Amino acid sequence: MAESITITDNRTGESFEIPIENGVVSSHEWQKHLPGIWFYDPGLMSTAMAESSITYLDGDQGILRYRGYPIEQLAEESTYLEVSYLLLHGELPNKEQYDKWVNDITHHTFIHENVRKRFLEGFHYDAHPMGILVSAVAALSTFYSDAKNIFDPASRDKQIVRLIAKMPTLAAAAYRFSVGMPFVYPDNSLSFPANFLSMMWKIAEPRYEADPRLVRAMDVLFILHADHEQNCSTTAMRVVGSAHADPYSAAAAATAALYGPRHGGANEAVIKMLTEIGSLDNVSDFVKSVKEGHGRLQGFGHRVYKNYDPRAKIVKRTAYEVFEVTGKNPLLDIALKLEEVALSDDYFISRRLYPNVDFYSGIIYQAMGFPVDMFPVLFAIPRISGWLAHWNELLEEDAKIVRPRQCYVGSDVRDYVPMEKREFES
Ligand code: CMC
């Protein structure tokens, strides 16, 4: 039997039935019976804004899958570029498709010289790299005027390749600029993650080759951050994309959303918190102060996961692999102790607060030498694949422009009062 709910409008006594499909009720069905009655849903906590076949997430069970493939298997066996292909095309590539995809991305990593010379170098010397990235992604739309042809599949594919390929170049350029180091051109003989590390760290050596274990760790972190269904930045991408803006402008909006400390900035907050705690002896007092309402345990809790974030498990394991190369980040012991104390405490258990992806990722980034300002930038590099997959999906289904309703609680109509007649409370 098909599932449904029955609603009775107590104003009229009329009852009607609304079908439940795939766990959702359609607002169109609702509007048929109750025109003009809106859902008040701040934070869109109970609203499914899109039908999507990209990422499956079950927060209660701690399950994350891209196009049906468990994140654990992808992190173990795949590469970020293969995952980006999967997110965008819906299927894993065969050898020929993969080689072409890697070749296409590799040959679009360069940025226009004017982006670097005229645009990036115009920023103040201590500009935040994420602020630079937001602006640089937006600026790309002015370099690729064909990007406006969003209903031309060939043009769309071209912008997708450009954006995925240029994110690491822009990210590394933003970093190098912010520390006064010269720009490093992409090295097309390197893999995607190895090229990024080369653009970050190369100094005077003819060729920079990062330790393969760090290259792999970078790739795994890129895989884990590639998509996460309808999160804040993806929603920003969809909202701006629904107005039919070009993909660079939409991706700039998504990058801006990711800049926020509640979203892409949480791993930076974790490092600050662990540094402030400073020693194992202070962990219990810190947890006590969080329980008393003095701040939050950063890197814990999630709007959707009410279980251990499956990405956090993989990041934790990756941390040990990175530390084999870099030496252990001294903050790790504090993090482990914090997790142990929190996971056995009723405050966190009853609220179903578990470590999220950010709890351990900052510790790895720090051990690899990235400054905290770069953490959200590292998140943005792979998330572009997810944003673009959602943007594609939105255009393919010819989605409506996002234009929500509001619950107006302001003044009723009133007459304009000339300034000299206005009375103010002192
Ligand atoms: N530490 C202590 N208490 C917490 C925490 C925390 N990290 N997170 C939630 N709570 C408590 C909160 O005080 C509330 O308690 P009560 O019911 O007594 O008022 C309850 O748990 C529910 O919290 P909420 O704020 O209603 O939950 P939310 O779904 O709106 O917030 C969150 C989700 C991620 C913003 C929040 O858990 C948080 O601020 N966590 C710390 C920041 C963080 O790690 N963010 C990264 C998210 S994952 C990466 C990403 O998606 O970008």
TrEMBL record:
InterPro entries: Citrate_synth-like_lrg_a-sub (IPR016142), Citrate_synth-like_sm_a-sub (IPR016143), Citrate_synthase (IPR002020), Citrate_synthase_AS (IPR019810), Citrate_synthase_bac-typ (IPR024176), Citrate_synthase_sf (IPR036969), Citrate_synthase_typ-I (IPR010953). GO terms for biological process: monocarboxylic acid metabolic process; tricarboxylic acid cycle. GO terms for cellular component: cytoplasm. Pfam families: Citrate_synt. It comes from the Bacteria. The active site is at residues 302, 358. Keywords: Transferase, Tricarboxylic acid cycle. GO terms for molecular function: citrate synthase activity. It catalyses: oxaloacetate + acetyl-CoA + H2O = citrate + CoA + H(+). Pathway: Carbohydrate metabolism; tricarboxylic acid cycle; isocitrate from oxaloacetate: step 1/2. Belongs to the citrate synthase family. NCBIfam families: cit_synth_I, PRK05614.1. PANTHER family: CITRATE SYNTHASE. This is Citrate synthase.
